[in-house]
Amino acid sequence: MTATDARQSASTEEATPVLTFEDVVLGFDGVTALNGVSFTVNAGELFAVIGPNGAGKTSIFNVLSGVYRPQQGTVRFGAEDLIGRRPHAIARLGVARTFQNIELFSNLTVLDNLMLGRHLHHPYGVLAAFAWLGKARRNELANRLAVEEIVDFLELAPWRRLPVGLLPYGIQKRVELGRALASEPKLLLLDEPVAGMNLEETEGMARFILDIRDELGLPMVMVEHDMGLVMDLADRIMVIDFGKPIRTGTPREVATDPDVVRAYLGEEHRVTP
Ligand SMILES: Nc1ncnc2c1ncn2[C@@H]1O[C@H](COP(=O)(O)OP(=O)(O)OP(=O)(O)O)[C@@H](O)[C@H]1O
Ligand SMILES: [Mg+2]
Asked: Which parts of the sequence belong to the ABC transporter domain (predicted)?
């Protein structure tokens, strides 16, 4: 089944969502970051979350990845309940993320940063690895091969042996995407993947995000302020404001919703039906 087939069958009624986020409430003394947020993500779907600054977009990711524990609600990933699990345990279930502000080891090379994304696959502790050196070496080799595949997929070859801190911003964002892919995730969370990028870098990133959906069939949740990118790429969009969803639907449905236009998009993004 191709990724497109998966998306189409996912949109039929009997499809089981890969991710269910239901009635989530998250507050920090006096501040309500999420005030009853519900959405689902289907197999192979690119689901976008948009909304003004402080609307609660990153908080959704922090709940999903176990950084924050909500006061109320359910979060299910496949058959697993994610609430109460630690970030490491959630990563092991196959949820990977990129960050709004790049979080890489700037003095390590591209290859080494990508290798760090593989460490989830290292089934041995350090001592056990000594005891089973042969096996550990084979693992290391398999990890290196997997990392080289990501280098090819994201066209990172020219920079592979350079420290990440020396690279242009747009390439660093791509390395961060690569590190998330290196863990072989089943769900990818992208927090503002093109923030701060120029037009050329944005178009490059858009192409890689589409390749991830269409070639790898990986479901994604993408938070992004670049409305052109969201409208072009997303299968469905949820608009949130003050921690509450205003509207969830296809790009066209969202762009023509009067409440959304009034609250967020403004006239320039209005689509004539
Ligand atoms: N650790 C925290 N402690 C206190 N308040 C927090 C914390 N994290 C988030 N908030 C608050 O929760 C609200 C939502 O923040 P969040 O970072 O989710 O917004 P966002 O939609 O990602 O915004 P932006 O577009 O600026 O990234 C904001 O009012 C923020 O100040
Ligand atoms: Mg944010």
From this structure: 19-267
Other residues' Cβ atoms within 10 Å of the Cβ of residue 163: 16
Residues 190-201 as b or e (16 or more Cβ within 10 Å = b): bbbbbbebeeeb
> Which ligand is located closest to the Cα atom of residue 55?
1
- Beta carbons within 8 Å of 64's beta carbon, 6+ residues apart: 19, 21, 75, 82, 90, 95, 97, 189, 221
**Distances from the Cα of 73 to the Cα of 24, 25, 64, 251, angstroms:** 4, 6, 12, 27
C-alpha span between 190 and 179 (Å, rounded): 12
> Per-residue pLDDT tens for 129-150?
566 667 777 788 888 999 999 9
Which residues lie with the beta carbon below 6 Å from any ligand 1 atom? 28, 31, 33, 51, 53-59, 100
Domains, the chain: 1-94+185-273 (3.40.50.300), 107-183 (no CATH)
Q: How far does the centroid of ligand 2 lie from the alpha carbon of residue 191, in Å?
A: 7
What is the residue type of 211? D
Query: pLDDT tens for residues 36-94?
Result: 999 999 999 999 999 999 999 999 999 999 999 999 999 999 999 999 999 999 999 99
Tokens 């690119």 — which residue?
46
Ligand 2 centroid distance, CA of 162 (Å): 29
Q: At what angle do helices 133-153 and 110-118 cross, to 10 degrees?
A: 120
* Reported pTM: 0.89
Query: Ligand 1 centre and the CA of 30: distance in Å?
Result: 12
